[in-house]
Amino acid sequence: MAEPVSCDLCGRTVPPHAHYVVMIEVFADPSMPGVSTEELEENDLEGSMNELLEEMKKMSAEELLDQVHRGFEFRICRVCQMKFLANPLGKPRETQAGKN
Asked: Measuring CA to CA, which of 42, 55, 65, 78 is 20 to 30 A from 100?
């Protein structure tokens, strides 16, 4: 039999199969910027690559991976699910006179 789940946001115990799963993926923009032939000819690609490799030597494997992709998975209760759907980034709500 399935075990109860603890909500990752509020800590409330949720009966088996009554929770929601939130999966978040954060990754680098995969599109390539436009580059002209002139820009390619002017750039010192070998020097740039060496600089990048030197910077990378100072970073941990986790820091390097965070530059490319990170995934998260959370289990939440119904109350937190409704709050999450209403404001997924948790940004403060702005109030404007006459517009609320």
From this structure: 78
Secondary structure (3-state) at 40? helix
Q: Average per-residue pLDDT in the chain?
A: 88
Tens of pLDDT along 44-60? 778 888 998 999 999 99
> How far is Cα 62 from Cα 56, in angstroms, rounded to an integer?
11
Residue type, 29: D
Print the SS3 string covering 41-100: HHCCHHHHHHHHHHHHHCCCHHHHHHCCEEEEEEEECHHHHHHHHHCCCCCCCCCCCCCC
